Amino acid sequence: MPELPEVETIRSGLDARLRGRRIVGIEIRERRLRRRIDVAELRGLVGRRVEGVSRRAKYLIVDVGEGTGWLMHLGMSGRLLLLQSGAPTGAHEHVRAEFEGRVTLCYRDPRRFGLMRVGRIEEFTELHGLGPEPLARGLAATLACRLRTTRRDVKAALLDQRLVAGIGNIYANEILFRAGVRPTRRCFRLSAAEIREIAGATGAVLRDAVRRRGTSFSDYFDSDGIPGTFQEVLAVFDRAGEPCRRCGATIKRRAHGGRSSFYCPGCQR
DNA sequence: ATATGCACCTGTGTGC
DNA sequence: TGCACACAGGTGCATA
C-alpha cells in the first residue's frame, strides 16, 4: 500500500506525537509477519525514549537513542494508528505499543507482508542495498548515470529500490505520465532530455503527493486515520478506460512483470 | 544482467 | 446467495 509519500506522511505524524515520549509497554498478538517478530527484541523497547522518527525509502525508523532503532515496513496493507490508551483492539492488530501520556501506537496489517524489528540502526541489512532518496539533491545526475547503462524497461528501473528507493507502482506510473515516457521504453534508448524529464517529474510528483498526504484510493489512512488527497489528481493510475485529462485519449492498462502499468497513448511516447 | 513466475497473506469486487 | 477467480500500494527468491 504505502509508497514514499504515504510513509512520509505517517512519519511526520508519528514524529510529532511520539518524540520525547517513553515507551511503557509492548503487546504482541501475532508474530508472523514477512519475517517472524522477535519478541525479546521488541520488548527491549520498553523503558526507552523516542528521540525522533525518520524514514528511509519505504521504511520507518523510530530512533530510541544510542544507535538503536525500531524498524518498520508496512508492506501492502500495513497501517499505523495513534489512539488513546485503552482503545479497543482493531481487526488484524498485531502489535501495540503504549507510550507515556496515554498514547497508543497500533500496527494493523491484514496481509502480514510488513516487517518489524529492533536493533542497531546501522546493522539493519534491509537498508543496506537501497539506492538514493528520490527527493534528495542530485537525482537528475543519479538517474542520468544509472539509467543510461541498463537495458531494462524504464518502469522496472523506477520500481527497483536499489536504483532509486521509495517509488512504488502508483507513483512510477504517474511519474512516467508526467515525463511523457511510456513504461515499456528501454532505459538505454532514452534521450538525455527524456531522462531529465523523468528526474523532474519524479521530484514534482513525489513532492505534490507528500503535500497531499498520499493517495487513498481504497484503504490508506495516516496515523490519525485521515485519508490523503492525491487520488483526486491521479493522471493514469487505476484509470484504464477513462479519458486522459490532458489529451482525451483513453488510458490503457497493461500487465508487465506481474504488475499493472497505466499510460496515455496520446501523451506518452 | 534481466525477465518471469511464484510465494508470502487477506480482502474486495466481478461475473456466473 | 454462493462460488470461483482476478487483483491489490511490496519484497525476495528460485529459475531460465
Quick structural overview:
25% of the residues lie in helices and 21% in strands.
Characteristic terms for this protein:
N-terminal domain of MutM-like DNA repair proteins; Helicase, Ruva Protein, domain 3; DNA-binding; alpha+beta; four-stranded antiparallel sheet
Based on CA inertia axes, which overall geometry fits?
globular
**Ends distance:** 28 Å
The total count of strands amounts to: 10
Oligomer state equals single chain
What summary fits the major beta sheet? 4 strands, antiparallel
Strand content: 15-25%
What count of structural domains? Answer: 2
Order of helices and strands: HEHEEEEEEEHHHHEE
Q: Please estimate the helix content.
A: 10-25%
CATH topology of the largest domain: Helicase, Ruva Protein, domain 3
Reading off the top of the CATH hierarchy, the class of the largest domain is best stated as Mainly Alpha
Count of helices? 6
Biggest sheet strand line-up: 1-6-7-5
Uncertain stretches? none
Mean pLDDT: 97
- Please compute the radius of gyration using only Cα atoms: 20 Å
> Any idea what the CATH architecture of the largest domain is?
Orthogonal Bundle
Structural class: alpha+beta
